[in-house]
Amino acid sequence: MSTAMANNSDLSMILPRVLIVSRRTVRKNKFVDFVGEFHLDLIVNYGAVPVIVPRVSGVHMLLESFEPIHGVVLCEGEDIDPSLYDAELSGFSPEELEEIRKAHASDTTIDREKDTIELRLAKLCLERNIPYFGICRGSQVLNVACGGTLYQDVEKELSKKIPEEERVMHMNYEDYDGHRHPVKVVENTPLHQWFKDSLEEKKMEIMVNSYHHQGVKKLAQRFVPMAFAPDGLIEGFYDPDAYNPEEGKFIMGLQFHPERMRHQDSDDFDYPGCPAAYKEFVKAVIAYEKRLNCSTCIHKAPKLNKELETKRKTIVRSFSIARNMYNSGRSIILGQESELEIGAEFLEANTALSLQQVNRLHQMGATVRNASAYREKLKMNEERERVARIIMGKMSIGHLSDLISFYHMMGKICSEALEKKLQDSVNEEVEL
Description:
single chain, alpha/beta, nine-stranded mixed beta sheet, two-stranded antiparallel ribbon
């Protein structure tokens, strides 16, 4: 294997993974899956690996197979099943529904399998605080996952109720990438930070590309708006309690398409803030991966050379003989004196016991002497360990990581509390 190939292999093992669900379409009378290349290109450019989750039946049951998941981008796709957020179907008559279907034939076909996959991924991100970036449909999925609702058709439910001069064309079938409409950016939000150098003083407006006939109707409670179209439609939102890219936090939805505001055959965008959105997302993904690795890493014992390994085994053997003698109450067996001396010499040379440690040894000795109760506890512990292993064997990597972090924290707290109690006990004995 060449050096370049080896380096690429190493790189693929350390870069964080961002999941993206594909969209299904028909080509030459067959289903094909695809993902917009601009999303993939930006994710790769900023240092992450896009992993495409195919929209095929049954994938929603296999999401754990894509672990580890360090980030999720959800983007294009058909309308979300209205029954997932609006049991009343917005009161449309059959004729109105048919009009909507004809006007937006490429988007109104419900894809329940994609809905299921993406809602599960969104909820997984919300449960674990995995960085999530929703574009267009992906922002709608995020809002629905958190209890929000959608306009099933912006034109019929919103545009017709406002003055004509305030109405907005949110999609243009004749100019897919070139279409733009204004949005007003909300101050002191991430969107404001990314686009601040492009905003005119006091105007707070940018021109964005969008392609959608649905949108956020009731924003889920946890989110804060970041941008509005002139007709009042929310064009961006985020969770302020889950946004800090440096700490691996990023939960956000944009109704417009920053990735498509790119000049043809160029790496330039309408605004520097367009790629900045992806840059900050990938920054959060990288930080999340580091945090996840720190919580799951297991420190390996240092490797010893042959001579040191022999000494280690000799000392372990000495301690093992001493333990067996102590537990059984037997005297020294002939020929083992020298082996016991090795362990004793090691303790004398390397250990200085504090009063607290002596106190602990006395407590341990009392427990061991109560052999019957001790053995019963061991049996109970063995059974608990067996059950725990079965349960943990069924848990995901993320859940196990959270469990390790929790018990590490509890062990530290317990150790501190025990030290304090032992110190208090020693102090009381000294005073007496």
